[in-house]
Specification:
520 residues, alpha+beta, 4 domains, 5-stranded mixed beta sheet, two-stranded antiparallel sheet, elongated, Rev_trsase/Diguanyl_cyclase, coiled coil, diguanylate cyclase activity, transferase
């Protein structure tokens, strides 16, 4: 019976592959300097004979060096070094050479994975899928490059370990270079298109009067292209513009209907005026005939009949005049109603366009703009598990500033606060004015420590930038309550916690920031 330990190593293993490469070149252990013919048996028998003299390592090391020297290339050179060190008994050099051999070759021999596929083949498949599917899909709009990743994937499919990689490597490097060159062009094209779009919006704004509802749309789109473009913000802007277009359709329909009504009213009134003119002309002609008849009257009866005819014609003309007056009054009321309807539609359009999403004094968001942004950021934080911080700010001594410098000075302080905050906040952050001297800072993807650092940095920046006002340098500082959003917490609860912390900070003193306790 064959000993299980005598079974030949599998060709797929590292030892099996090494032995299979050298089955025709055996090594003996009888002498330290001359190689002996290798055994004719299997690999196990060769190993047994090779290690039979393990208690005398010099012959074994000599046999290993002699076997290595018969290999081609760098391995043969390594064998010559081992032979030289063995013959001169320089075992330090022999060990150093063995270490280099192990580090460079033995440790890099690939092992098969449990599924029977070497790591190199697994990496090949991953690279082929990345190049042939992912990169190819990204280059579909570039005819000069889109075929190259498909061809590279085909070559990778037929590559196997041991075959040269230089041609594939060179083509892959060239493809990466071409993509890098064109990516710079794509970025430049995107920036040029955005700047062209912004210039177009500037031109549109110049053509509009100050009361036009289109300013809201222009502001919304410019805010979108001015910040980082993400899917949620673009989709929100798209939904807002669709609502604006719908309102514009209603407004256009209302204006058309109002114009048609006014046209009909004026047409009817003109027809009545024409009728009155005809009747008035006939009335004048009849009066002239009555004057002639009056001269020819012969009796009281003739005069009485003539008087009745004059009164009857005069009454008819008077009735027509009264009807024209009533019709004109009705037309006026219809025109006023149409104008009121148009004004209502324009106001609705202004609201939906976004003119009331920003505070006209400071340029910060107002309450409606904050509610919409907070709703989006809460949904995004819940979806991705990102942190979200909200701070409620209140200016210290604001009423005193109003008293000393008037409302214009107070307005200047509010604008100064917003401008300094916008100078230091990220593009993803936002500041909103709730009313008076209360503001809200919204800090997406900001953990508690960073949000506290942001508020303290804003306080230091304000302290370094006093506001020049009435030939004085007015210090501006605020107190704040900071709340960190907890998963599942609604917006109202988050604002309440920040508000409670703000009042606690006010009680402690001025120019303070207090963090809210987590909800219980």
């Amino acid at each position: 019976m064959t000993d299980p330990h005598d079974a030949s190593p599998r060709p797929g293993t590292a030892v099996g592959r090494l032995l299979s490469r050298r089955q025709s070149v055996g090594t003996g252990v009888e002498t330290a300097s001359e190689p002996a013919p290798g055994p004719k048996g299997g690999s196990s028998a060769m190993l047994q004979r090779l290690f039979a003299g393990i208690d005398a390592p010099e012959p074994l090391l000599a046999a290993f060096a002699n076997g290595m020297s018969t290999l081609p290339g760098e391995l043969g050179d390594m064998g010559l070094r081992l032979q030289s060190a063995q013959r001169s008994a320089d075992w330090v050099s022999y060990g150093r050479a063995m270490r280099q051999l192990i580090d460079k070759y033995i440790r890099t021999i690939e092992q098969e994975t449990p599924d029977g596929q070497p790591d190199s083949l697994r990496l090949r498949e991953l690279l082929r899928h990345t190049v042939g599917v992912t990169v190819a899909s990204l280059l579909q709009n570039m005819p000069e490059l889109r075929e190259e990743p498909v061809q590279l994937a085909g070559e990778l499919r037929h590559w196997h370990p041991g075959q040269p990689l230089q041609p594939i490597e060179q083509r892959l490097r060239e493809l990466s270079h071409q993509i890098g060159v064109r990516s710079d062009g794509w970025q430049e094209q995107q920036e040029l298109l955005l700047s062209l779009f912004d210039l177009l919006l500037d031109n549109i704004s110049e053509l509009l009067d100050d009361s036009s509802w289109l300013h809201g749309q222009v502001h919304a789109v410019r805010s979108l292209i001015g910040g980082p473009l993400d899917r949620d913000s673009v989709e929100q802007a798209r939904a807002n513009l669709r609502e604006v277009i719908y309102k514009q359709g209603l407004l256009k329909q209302g204006i058309v209907e109002s114009k048609a009504a006014m046209k009909n009213v004026m047409g009817g009134f003109i027809e009545r005026l024409d009728g009155m003119a005809v009747s008035t002309g006939e009335y004048h002609d009849r009066i002239s005939s009555y004057a002639l008849a009056l001269k020819e009257a012969r009796s009281i009866a003739d005069l009485n009949q003539l008087l009745q005819d004059v009164l009857q014609d005069t009454g008819r003309v008077q009735d027509q005049a009264l009807q024209a007056r009533d019709h004109l009054g009705n037309a006026r009321r219809e025109v006023e109603q149409a104008e009121q309807r148009i004004a209502e539609l324009e106001q609705e359009l202004r609201e939906v366009s976004g003119l009331i999403r920003t505070d006209p004094l400071t340029g910060a968001l107002n309450r409606r703009g904050l509610d919409e942004l907070l709703e989006r950021e809460l949904a995004r934080a819940a979806r991705h598990g990102h942190p979200l911080a909200l701070a409620l700010l209140d200016l210290d001594d604001f009423h005193q500033t109003n008293t000393l410098h008037g409302h214009a000075g107070g307005d200047a302080v509010l604008r100064h606060l917003v401008s300094v905050c916008q100078l230091h906040l990220r593009s993803s952050d936002a500041i909103a004015r709730l009313g008076g001297d209360e503001f809200v800072l919204l800090l997406p993807e900001t953990p508690a420590a960073d949000s506290m650092s942001t508020l303290l940095r804003l306080q230091r920046s304000l302290a370094q930038r006093p506001l020049p006002l009435d030939e004085q340098r007015v210090p501006v500082h605020f107190s704040a309550g900071l709340a960190q959003w907890q998963p599942g917490e609604p917006a109202e609860a988050l604002l309440r916690r920040a508000d409670a912390s703000l009042y606690a900070a006010k009680r402690v003193g001025k120019n303070r920031v207090l963090a809210a306790e987590p909800p219980r």
